[in-house]
Amino acid sequence: MDSSSPEPSLYTVKAVFILDNDGTRLLSKYYDPELYSSIKEQKNFERNVFNKTHKADNEIAFLEGLTIVYKSSIDLFFYVVGSAQENELMLMSVLNCLFESLNQILRKNVERRCLLDNMDGVFLVVDEIIDGGVILESDPQQVLQKVNYRTVSEPAFGFVLFDYITGNLEAQTERSQLL
Questions:
Q1: 3-state DSSP assignment of residue 176
Q2: Average of per-residue pLDDT across 23-39
Q3: Residue-wise pLDDT tens digits, 34-76
Q4: How far apart (Å, rounded) are the C-alpha atoms in residues 51 and 92?
Q5: Is the terminal CB of the chain with fewer CB neighbours within 10 Å at N or C?
Q6: Is 69 helix (H, G, I), strand (E, B) or coil?
């Protein structure tokens, strides 16, 4: 095998980031330490990606030797980045899972203000979908179950999230009995 072709890897996701409609970073996670190791390099890359995609009507872009799938909603842009050899459908399944999970958590209000008000939940969702670049889950319902999100008339998400983070199982049980 020649050294120019990369070895197959479980590490299919190189980065995930969410930008607002000005291209400002709201969330980013880079999983490949060799890919844009400084924050300055990351932000330059994100700016280039945003400039190439924010007016385009596509779902996929190729830039700097990487495959990028993306989606926009109101004033947000969601990006999942993989290598040039990565299967676009795999990356798209991650993107769709991220978007649909956030759509549920943010009660179908996927916009900047709501996202910023719920960043703890957003990070939990990202971490349930991808761990160190490995895709763990692509089913939004499974992700929501894992972050302990109740979709049927429940108390404010912040309390459920707080209980989840602090491990307060007693409060979680009391609330579920009330439902």
A1: helix
A2: 93
A3: 889 999 999 999 999 999 998 887 899 999 999 999 999 889 9
A4: 20
A5: N
A6: strand
Helix/strand/coil for 97: helix
| Residues facing 69 on adjacent strands | 60, 80
Q: Which pLDDT score, from 0 to 100, does residue 33 have?
A: 87
- Ordered DSSP codes for 113-127: HHHHHTHHHHHHHHH
Cα separation of 90 and 17, whole Å? 17
pLDDT tens digits for 109-158? 888 999 999 898 899 999 999 999 999 999 999 998 888 754 443 444 55
- Tokens 């999230």 correspond to 161
pLDDT at 163: 57
Output the six-digit token pair for 127.
């971490």
Closest by alpha carbon to 75, among 107, 113, 105? 113
Type of residue found at 163:
D
Joined together, the tokens standing for residue 79 give 């990006």
Run of H or E including 83: strand 76-83
**Overall pTM > 0.70:** yes
Distance CA 42, CA 48 (A): 10
Angle at 147 between CA 142 and CA 151, to 5 degrees: 70
Q: Looking at residue 96, what DSSP letter applies?
A: H
Cβ burial of 50 (10 Å; 0-12, 13-18, 19+) is buried
